[in-house]
Design brief:
Strand order of the largest sheet: 2-1-5-3-4
Helix content: 25-40%
Structural class: alpha+beta
Radius of gyration: 21 Å
Largest sheet: 5 strands, mixed
Strand content: 5-15%
């Protein structure tokens, strides 16, 4: 979009609001996890080109990959009816993937606004379009945050472990509490996938129900409030300050049992993913996730 005013007009339009309302209802009803990587749905995108119905809600095998592929194509299909007629492409010398990516980013942006309650301010009548602010990395001599904090240890507690131990006494359960990656360094997708590996969720047929951080009287959700958690952690100056943060995870049965629960794009076929240091030894080339230790 050329400017913020056009973006506001697009989000406020009836076409977008009707689309997003259906999208949010279906996503919540199916409990679909966020999509971290567009390449995971790329093969399905062509199957939903020009689709007229929002979703195949009556079909039982409707996976999250089908859901996101259909949603992206819905945005492209209604582009010409939206205010300002946004250009998704592909532009000259671009592949179709660039058009998919622009629609995906637009959807992610509005979903972020909705989750964080920023949509009310952006779409409100009294919104002021303030001058753009340079990112920190573009400001000369601005203190740069570097991932040098790994000497600090962070522990996470699996709060409903005993429930699954009683249900499946024959299965070996991972330890709790367990060591986390440094939450000041890695994003929420990477943190949740690390937890899935450490707790062997693929073998146990489980997935994350809740991943929260407690600090004093406040509790923060990893999906919607991770930047806030990182800001608080990075302001902590001493070990005593860091010890005031508590990390809790609860798991639930994975539905369907063979669903792909990982948010980042890497191989999860290893039956014994942990090495002696508790890290994951992945097998897919070109992998850059934080627990591969450079072996991918």
């Amino acid at each position: 979009m050329p400017d913020l005013e056009q973006l506001r007009n697009l989000y406020k339009s009836q076409q977008w609001q009707e689309f997003y309302q259906n999208y949010a209802i279906e996503k919540q009803a199916r409990n679909f996890a966020p999509l971290a990587c567009l390449s995971l749905v790329y093969e399905r995108l062509g199957a939903y080109e020009g689709i007229e119905q929002p979703y195949r809600a009556t079909i039982d095998d409707w996976s999250k990959w089908d859901f996101y592929a259909c949603s992206i194509n819905r945005i492209l299909g209604m582009a010409w009816t939206l205010p300002g007629s946004p250009v998704f492409g592909p532009l000259e010398n671009e592949s179709q993937l660039e058009a998919y990516n622009r629609a995906f980013q637009l959807l992610n942006h509005y979903e972020y606004l909705s989750i964080t309650k920023r949509s009310e301010r952006l779409l409100g009548d009294n919104f002021e379009n303030n001058p753009a602010v340079k990112p920190r990395f573009m400001i000369p001599n601005y203190p740069v945050f570097l991932p040098t904090y790994n000497r600090d240890e962070f522990q996470c507690i699996w709060v409903n472990k005993s429930q699954y131990q009683e249900q499946h006494p024959q299965k070996a359960m991972p330890k709790s509490p367990f060591r986390l990656l440094d939450p000041r360094v890695w994003n929420d997708h990477q943190m949740r996938d690390y937890v899935r590996h450490r707790l062997d969720c693929r073998r146990l047929g489980l997935d994350i129900q809740r991943f929260t951080v407690k600090h004093g009287e406040n509790e923060y959700d990893s999906r919607s409030e991770w930047p806030m958690v990182q800001d608080l952690l990075r302001k902590a100056k001493t070990k005593e300050d860091l010890d005031k943060f508590e990390f809790y995870i609860s798991l639930e049965p994975r539905i369907p049992p063979d669903a792909d629960i990982f948010e980042c794009f890497y191989d999860t076929t290893d039956e014994s993913p942990h090495d002696a240091d508790g890290y994951v030894d992945c097998t897919r080339g070109g992998c850059a996730h934080p627990f591969s230790r450079g072996r991918c």
